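Q: Predict the assembly, please.
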Amino acid sequence: MSLSLDAQAPSKSNPADVVIQNATVMTVTHGTIPNGSVWIHNGKIAGVGASVNAPAGALTIDAAGKYVTPGIIDPHSHSALGNDVNEATSPVTPSMMMIDAFDNLDKALYQALAGGVTTELLLHGSANMIGGQAVVIKNKFGLSRDEMLFPNAPRSIKFASGENPKRVYGRRNEVPSTRMGNFEVMRQAFEDAKAYMASWDAYNAKVAKGDKDATPPKKDLKLEALSDVLRGKLYVQIHCYRADEFLTEEAIAKEYGYKIRGFHHALEMYKVGDKIAPTGTGIATFADWWGFKDEAWDAIPWNAVMSMREGVRVALKSDSNDYIRRLNQEAGKMVHYGGATEDEALRMITLNAAWIIGVDDRVGSLDVGKDGDVVIWNTDPLSTYARVEKVFIDGDLFFDSSAPGFGTPRFHGVMHDAEGFGGEDEEGDAE
Amino acid sequence: MKTAILASGLILAAAQASVFAQAALPVPNGASLAPAKTIAIVGGKLLTVTHGVIENGVVIMSGGKITAVGPASSTEVPADAEVFDAKGMTVYPGLFDAETHLGLTEVASDQNSNDLAETSDEISPQMHVADAFHAETVRIPVERLNGITNAIVAPASQDSVVGQDAAIQLSGRDRDEMLLQRDIALAMNFEGSVRRRANFEGPSKFPTTRMGLASQIRQAFLDAEAYEAERAAAAKPDHKGAPPKHDLKLEALLPYLHGEKPVVLGAYESYEVEVAMGIAKEFHLKVILNHVTHAQDILDEIASYHVPVIVGSIYDFPRSNERYDAVFSLPSELQKRGVKIALAGGDMGGSRNLPYAAGYAVAYGLPYDEALKAITLNPAEMFGLGDKLGSLDIGKTANVVVANGDPLDVRTSVKQVFVDGKAVPMVSRQTELRDQYMPLTKSK
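A: Predicted assembly structure:
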């Protein structure tokens, strides 16, 4: 069966088998296959290669002359969080849950989808040293809030450092107003969490001994969340620009016994990549954005590739409702700035980005068993001339540029228009 | 001269193995102290902009000008010329960014480094960006490394009449060498964000509406007309009484009232474009339209104005009721209607990403040749510099770029930039940081 997807009426039922064939298939993990095919069965990738053993009834898409990649993954976005990015009323707010602000009809999600983005980590902003807990979504634009959540994704928490916390609280003549203050606030929070954990341990021990009069400590959402950080239950994602601060953050993490999953922005990682690589912490950085504030003054566009050469796992990210639409171009720049191979460049916006989020076992490459998140491009996605033509998520078609209207087979209605750039560094205390 | 560290896998953009990097003695912002020699760029693919593509071509530069352009087979290389081997490379005119704030800001978050706009008065034509232009900005060499050789420096769009733009060359020993022309155009805006509402800066004051903005602009031009008439009257021999006080503000508007220079008129919405063009017509202003981002429903009308347009930025967001590509396709839609278009950097990455914006416009329908024109010849012509800049033609300023591929592709690296026929050192603060921390050269 071969048919035009354009003609399909919106429907909840999708074909069990989809085969995209005759394409240049960029797998990320095992090279590029010219004239290759990708077979998706029941939402999972069932075959990738020069040919695949798809059943005769599969929906077949002839992608001759086109390129196929896994869905693009953005490990740092504030899309669809409206004006609720920062709870900037205290430098420590670990119990804020970004899912409580997630607006699944925000047009930014649609525009990102049209740029091939299938998975996003939606983070708290950088006003607070310890911000809130992130939400991981699949960009199934048109489905309900719950249906857009990435099932069983690891929990992440956002930390910050540097200029933003000290600016936000310093302006109010509160602590922190310096980097010393920043880190003091953080250490005190962990001391409080340790005391809280100890009080629960003591209570549990009493109960275990059969003490019926033991009174439990008061449940505290903030300290519960911090305890989960110390127990290693949350991936720690830290907004951090400067080389000295990476080192301080790693030292504090070691002192309190947690791991840092990713440094975000990380514009000076090229200075200390050799020191950070052994810790296993990855980075999610900008391609070439620089100079917008003091702590971004030493940013260079070679940062990503130089850090990668030092052994740091490198992802690119948007932190913006603009760049999220063209992360493929940002990856293309890595060929120019530092001579990344196309595989290395593409990995920065797919598999490595998935690793930052902790979902690299399920998305980020075209491998059998992974989720059927697949993008068809008109040409090489790392070129300036690339446009997204179709986006499949879990094997379902969510974007088709040739379809009329928005090109969204699953969305018909009115989008929400959250004005703003979608970054965390926008002016004003609230951002 | 830098050497590529192949073992690290890093290919240095500055690794062009030629005499050029050595010959050029770096001074602030890149001009070479060495006298201009005759240079021949030989063997490259020439994108001339005005007369097509020449495979295996030759460009000769002498005395700061282009003196010959043609196929290698028929273009003689003078015996005394220094030869730049461009085999396998692409050669094209230096790029021209139609709107930047270069030299008016260094670190955006640091107010002390910003001279973006004088916001004390909405009508400030007597503000000259040339008076604030900081030639030694770290940003200029950074942008230049991607082949940007010329730009318009404009104030930020915070007033109705913000001040006068300057045209610059992105290389020179000091301000005067870099300023091509001060007061080349008047920066004007008719858009909501100019209104003096409480959420803008300080408390609300007139004008808080578009009616207010429009009447204020009209009054300013009427005052200038009256001033000029009064001055003319005072110049007559039989005139009695004192001549009018010399008024810098009104004086500044006169060349624009006479249509001697263009006004760059910024407007986003259809109705804003229409109102702004109405005012421009009333005072016979020579217009370059700017933005027109959300005026997609009046593109035919815009074409009927017969004025050039600086489009976008194409990265401005579409509205929630628009398709994702509504703004990406704007350059193509305007060009199709015969409008002369230019693009401006308009990206947080800066002017160095200008060629990629042009490439993205190609992805969304703009013919390639027109995209290249939109960042070379078209902006040069809009600002009256078309006889000097924007193409590989004999007699033009020798601003020429050599790259290892298609200039509009993000994967391409610029290998050498020539300004005024001189090789500019391919260094910036960023390449210096890169080289200082290069993995294999760092002590471990």
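Confidence is low (pLDDT under 50) at residues 1-11, 426-431 of chain A. The radius of gyration of chain A is 22 Å.
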